[in-house]
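Much of the work behind modern protein science is quiet bookkeeping, done one molecule at a time. The protein below has been through that process, and both of its lines are reproduced in full.
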Amino acid sequence: MVNTQDTTQKEEPINKVPLIIVLLSGAFAAILNQTLLATALPNIMADLNLEASTAQWLTTIFMLVNGVMIPITAFLIGRFTTRGLFLTAMGLFAFGTLICAIAPNFPLLMVGRILQASGAGIIIPLMQTILFMIFPIEKRGAAMGMFGLVISFAPAIGPTLSGWLVDQFPWRSLFYVILPIVIIDFIIAYFILKNVTKQTFPKLDILSIILSTFGFGGILYGFSIAGGEAGWSNPQVPISMLIGAVTLTWFILRQRRLREPILEFKVFQYKTFTLTTVLGMVVFIALIGASTVLPLYMQQMLGFTALESGLMLLPGALIMGFSNPITGRLFDKFGAKWLAITGLIILVVTTFMFTDLTAQTSFMYLTIVNAFRMLSVALVMMPVTTAGINQLPDHLISHGTAMNNTMRQVSGAVGTALLVTVMSTAARPSNGIEGLVHGVNVSFIVAGISAIIGLVLSFFIKRPSVLAAS
């Protein structure tokens, strides 16, 4: 294999377009896969004779393995070539998808999901790292805007596509739809992908990987089941969170002592990176309210179907996706600060517009307000992420993307558990439907407070006069 690890963006600029297409296709397949299965669970339960609590593990295990893999991608990027790592990740994902498609029973289906998640957990941060390496700092906003288009578009069509497929075909069709995309992407990547990340050959510290797995896995699992039907009363919640907190603390302390840490916490020494990472987490908690609470409200309180609730979310997700390339170019010209402030003002207003819902709230009202809400997120998420990682020197970019994605995973789990818990606690079942809707309104008040915190933080973003080394 030819060693091209020191390749810069100037050497083969003509290869950027096919390279980006390959990377975005892989990311699209990985993210689409996360959102396809939820609608199909009833069909899978009927076909394989599963209880709901058992079938739910098909989505939970994906989130857990994905969340566990992301923190160690910085180590993997330093240890292996760009090409080798991407092909391995896509190979794992393809093999897992094939197993899921032909799995005759639940255990084998779980194996397929684990393989899928292990590949997907590598693909997203690796792709971000490659984009930051091949584009000069003044063009990274546009590149990340294209990435934002993909990661918004895939979840946008996921529930709707899934609902249509399982209505027309067996649930295995979900995996047969993804498999050709992954195989074609793997073949094209084999021929055109270049090595753009630098191999530093960090030492493998087995204990760190074990601690990372139990630390992040325990916290993610604790919050994910806290957001489920049993809520915080589930005895597994405090146990998994305690294990997660203890091992994660141990992991962080160990990384600070190692000469070659698995995940470099020095990225938090860069103030803009720290600020934008926290800002992204706060906004994500506010964002999760729409994707989690609104479908519950529509299906359980307004009587809409799962497909209809997916269609309500679709315009907003599409607007968010198609806005990302535009906000990326605006970021390259003007920086993140005023984009973030503008977006967060809209987010605060639209979130509080969801705090006065009733049993008669129209489909159109929900769709329009949610669309503006998603537009606001497009103005914030990718620009602040890019602004933060831009402040890191090249040797820390892989650690920055891994850390950013890990924190996003954690905030998503925390946000879901928090808002579902608030919705359940604040509900007044004795008052009928309106009493249940009251819980939804209170959960959006909490989401709105989160958005206000984000708005305050956005005023502290600075446009740097000296950019990070590239």
About this structure: Residues 204-261 form one domain. The two ends are 26 Å apart (CA to CA). The chain is about 75% helix and 0% strand. The chain has a mean pLDDT of 85.
